[in-house]
Every structure is written in C-alpha cells, then in structure tokens.
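Record 1 of the preview.
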Amino acid sequence: MAESENIPQQTPPVSPTPEKPARSKGWLIILIALAIISLIIFRDAFRSIDWLTDYQTARQQAGQQHKPLLIFFVKPGDAECERMKNITYADKRIVKYISSSFVAVLLDFDKNQSLAQKFQVEQLPFTVVLNTKTEKFATVPGYVNLKEFNGRLRRARQKILQPD
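->
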C-alpha cells in the first residue's frame, strides 16, 4: 500500500449558504412587472416617424400603400427646421397620425434642389402633401405650431380622400 492512500482527504469546511428572504424575490417580480407595464403604456411616447430619405422610394411606397405622400424639406442645422422637427413632428399625436396615414419622406433641401424647385419650396422648413398621383394638395411653409399643423394635415388628407 502506498503511503498516499493512508492520508485522509481533508475537505474545507462547508459553510451553510444563507437563504435569501422570500420578499427580495417578490420585489424583483414587482419591479419586472412595473417595467413591462411602463413599456406598454409609454411605447407611443418613444415612437418617431419612420422617415424615408429617398423621394422615388417614398413615391413608390405611397402608390403601393394607397397613402398620400408627405415631404418634409429641411436644412440641417437650421434653427426653424430643427424646431419643427423636434417639436411639431415629435408630438406623439402627429407621429401616430403621420405614421398611419401618410408615407413620409425627409429631404435635405441642399441635396434635393430639383425637387425643391418642382414643389416651389418658398422657405424652410417646408412640408408638401401629395396624392398618389403626386399632385400637390397642401403646402406648409415655415415653422407651424402643433394645432395648426395638425389641422392642415387633416384637411389635406380629407381633400385627397374625398375630392370635389
């Protein structure tokens, strides 16, 4: 017999693991539930318009979806353009309405001069609403507050859906 076989194996003492109180698991479940509920309730608050950036693609989608086309001409860095984009276009009611009722395209004025001329962009920011045949139904030059903008969009869409 070898001597190593006679040496008793020493195992370190095992300390009992303290059990976590059941209430800490309860709090975790409550926190997870609150997080899920918050996401459901506030999901629209974090939505934004899914802007396309190519006119031809937007025009094609508008025809396929049978929706009016909304074009928003901006100049990056322009204070009024940023104001319109970050205030009026960011309102959750406008986001929801545009997302469900229009195909939206955001165009850089400097990079889309020919389209800006075609739609007679007078000042920036500038919004144009077109029907599926790309006929102009409404324009919104400059910054417009939420209430006025909402009214103009709704009237333009109504004209498109129910022509004279």
